[in-house]
Amino acid sequence: MFDFDDSRLEDPEVLAAAAPLLMNLASSGARVRREAAMAEAPLAAIDDVDRPRAVIAYGPEARLLRAVLEPVCPVPFVAWPALGLPGWVGPLDIVLLIGRRGPESMAVAHEAVRRGCRLIVACPPDSPLAERSASRSTTLLPVNTGDPLAAAVVFLVALHRLGLGPYTNPEAIAAAMDGVAERCAARTDVSVNPAKTMALDLADASPLVWGGSVLAARASRRIVEALRLASGRIGLAADASDLRSLLHQAPPRDPFADPFEEGTQERRPGLVLIDDGQDDAAAAEARLRLERTAQAADIRITRLEHFEDSVVERYATVLLTGLFGAAYLQIGLGRTAS
User: What residues make up the domain containing 115?
Assistant: First the structure.
């Protein structure tokens, strides 16, 4: 059983011990810059002479690519979750492969080459996957950091050059992530640090996370995964109607309960609302209902918001803030020692 101690969020020794956890998040922007710089030459060689029949993406963040491309892509875009490729895929299609270790990526690369597809693969240039992917129709985007989001940004640049997606500026995305790292730095006081505030809000809560737009919903799933890992508690990202049902079932707050006495009170939920300014009318109404339900049940609400810049910059900002919040929750619970 781990008890949250808010003093850990300002303790220099505790924060120094947790430095690797925080530095991994703080270097997110640097990884985007590095991957974009490494892929600059092959990206410059990409052209959009022949429009494909369809685009099939496989690997980590394939659904992120789909979420960004679906509103504007002039051809069907498929985020393929299964081993291999759909039976209809052939030489008229483009396959995007965000490489990772394991037989699945190798199988997709083999099938794409065998069928004569135009293949764009992001992986280390000296890896077995790069060797397996080699063909006259293959473009290799050399990446080395192992960060799927950074690789996805490189793919978005490639898709724009192919005439299939919106303009993507890796430097702007990296700068947005650097801004989050600055605001959420360990040295930043809890009173102005949104990630430490989020950790305090969820100190004794089971997290429920919701985002209204497609990208905000994706960020909610990533954030709740991090919160579950950080806290060892049950957490959920789901439709607004499902979360409202859970909020209705939350036990009433007992003002006389001793928070330091084990078993005195059932754990209540904490609601995290993600807003990237992209809600449609239905999502705006769902957000309002969630807020009203939480307020009626005396549930604390944490808001992660970013309304400026491109959709990917907004996504990266709210996502990274939430991941920092999960890290500070882990630190406050004393779970970083292991």
Answer: 30-171
Mean pLDDT across the chain: 93
**Domain containing 226 — which CATH number?**
3.40.50.10490
Q: Are residues 229 and 332 in contact, defined by beta-carbon separation less than 8 angstroms?
A: no
> Residue 265's pLDDT is what?
58
Residue 47: pLDDT band with limits 50, 70, 90: confident
Distance CA 99, CA 134 (A): 13
204, 252: one domain:
yes
100 within some domain: yes
Instruction: Say how far apart CA 281 and CA 285 lie, in whole Å.
Output: 6
- Which 3 state secondary structure label does DSSP give 312? helix
| First CA to last CA distance, the chain | 14
Q: Do 180 and 32 touch, CB atoms closer than 8 A?
A: no
Alpha-carbon distances, residue 158 vs 11, 124, 138, 163 (angstroms):
44, 17, 13, 9
Entry pTM: 0.93
> Phi first, then psi: what are they for 214, rounded to 5°?
-60, -45
